[in-house]
Design goal:
formyl-coa transferase, domain 3; alpha/beta; 19 helices; Rossmann fold; 36% helix; EC 2.8.3.16; single chain; binds coenzyme A; 2 domains; Formyl-CoA:oxalate CoA-transferase; disordered C terminus
Length: 424
């Protein structure tokens, strides 16, 4: 049995944030029914296309284990079908622009009337307030959530990060809200509305930077490199380059081969507890007792000198040799892995974190599998659905349309071209 077996999800999501959430629900065992505009579908199907005529990797990597129904929710018969889906489902997830669902005639009040047990989960760019009506994409959220202003180097512009903390990060937050609401429904019998704003989710992930904002009132942030460099702090949490986010100093350092390989680097942390081992490894044993070096606070104004010396050592080793030498001493280091190296790591395939998936249009591709492992709810990653692949199946098996009634619905223009599919 899967953890969410028996839970039906009406997946009204598109692009990345919402689909991340519903893909997780599908992996946990829910029956996820993705509603897509007839003949068009989720816009990502045709974005960043690498194989002409096939669904893009953007789409296939975010919509595993789902079923697809083509449905025009603005058509009268389409609204009838949507109403029946709302009656049947436990959860409705959407990430339309603000007001889009209301304009279709499906406000939260109406949805609750149709099914008081349903959980309606929404992603918007901003929570209630002056920006509530804005359309928002990933990088806007990274900027509005405080991540961009605190990422990058002090002498450079704000930076967005490659990790999709605005989209996928918000999808994760929403998913937690949904399962929490399902748990509460077990006791109350009532559904509820679950909302996650992308700005809020990014801010939640940038929590430590708000911590530092408040610490500024008590003086300079001593673990930031700029403290050791004598650069005064301003009014807001500054960009900290590659400084460690925690209380112990850390940097990204060059390794052997850095001249040719843009990823021949390691992260290196000099925690107080392993300082003496670091000194031995890099060949500076006298730093263990030398005044100005022996105690952590004394070292803070010498971090540039210390890391330059460590880098002289790391440059004589590959990033993997650094890992092999430092790990037995509990010195926290981490190789900077390229996506190429990650995609070739058989260890990640063994755990299901990476998966190879077959697809009828594009053949085999690599995807990220379920990153959350449940010991009693195994995940088998299945390919994403083709547009409208399950329209007839959902109409008949989930909603019970049959005979003339089914013909009426199919003939109404609300559900795409089913005859063409049957012929294929
Ligand atoms: C992502 C986003 C910016 C995309 O904007 P968009 O491409 O213009 O898409 P919208 O959500 O506005 O939807 C466009 C229209 O399609 C309609 N539509 C969607 N699915 C439909 C269907 N199955 N049948 C009929 N109409 C449909 C919507 O009702 C809407 O119509 P309206 O503008 O008349 O109300 C926007 O959806 C958004 O801000 N979402 C919330 C934040 C978010 O999740 N952002 C991150 C995305 S990764």
């Amino acid at each position: 049995m899967k953890a969410l077996e028996g839970i039906k999800v009406l997946d009204f999501t598109h692009v990345q944030s919402g689909p991340t959430c519903t893909q997780l629900l599908a992996w946990f065992g829910a029956d996820v029914i993705k509603v897509e505009r007839p003949g068009v579908g989720d816009a990502t199907r045709k974005q960043l296309v690498d194989v002409p005529g096939a669904d893009s990797l953007y789409f296939t990597m975010l919509n595993h284990n789902k079923r697809s129904i083509e449905l025009n929710s603005k058509n009268e018969t389409g609204k009838e079908i949507l109403t029946r889906l709302i009656q049947e489902c436990d959860v409705l997830v959407e990430n339309f622009a603000p007001g889009a669902l209301d304009r279709m005639g499906f406000s939260w009040e109406n949805i609750q009337k149709i099914n008081p047990r349903i959980i309606m989960a929404s992603i918007k760019g901003f929570g209630p307030g002056k920006y509530q009506d804005c359309k928002v994409y990933e990088n806007v959220a990274q900027c509005a959530g405080g991540s961009a202003s605190t990422t990058g180097f002090r002498d450079g512009p704000p930076l967005v990060t490659g990790a999709q903390i605005g989209d996928s990060g918000t999808g994760l937050h929403l998913c937690l809200g949904i399962v929490t609401a399902l748990f509460q429904r077990e006791k109350t019998g009532r559904g509820q509305k679950v909302s996650a704003a992308m700005q809020d989710s990014v801010l939640n992930l940038a929590r430590v930077k708000l911590r530092d904002q408040q610490r500024l009132a008590a003086g300079p942030l001593t673990e930031y490199s700029q403290f050791g460099e004598g650069v005064p702090f301003g009014e807001a949490t500054p960009r900290a380059g590659n400084d460690s986010g925690g209380g112990q100093p850390g940097r990204i350092l060059k390794c052997k081969g850095w001249e040719q390989d843009p990823n021949a680097y390691t992260y290196f942390i000099i925690q107080a507890a392993i300082w003496e081992k670091v000194c031995d490894v890099i060949g500076e044993p006298e730093w263990k007792t030398k005044e100005g070096y022996a105690k952590p606070p004394e070292r803070l104004d010498k971090l540039n000198e210390i890391f330059e010396r460590i880098e002289q050592w790391t440059m004589t080793k590959t990033k993997f040799e650094v890992m092999d030498i430092c790990n037995p001493h509990d010195i926290p280091v981490g190789p900077i892995l390229s996506m190429k190296e990650i995609s070739e790591d058989e260890g990640l395939y063994a755990t299901g974190t990476l998966v190879r998936v077959d697809h009828p249009e594009r053949g085999e591709y690599i995807s990220v599998g379920c990153p959350i492992k449940l010991s009693d709810s195994d995940v088998v990653v299945e390919r994403s659905p083709l547009l409208g692949e399950h329209t007839e199946e959902i109409l008949s098996q989930v909603l019970g349309y049959a005979g003339e009634d089914l013909d009426r619905v199919i003939g109404s223009g609300a559900v795409g071209d089913i005859k063409r599919q049957a012929a294929e």
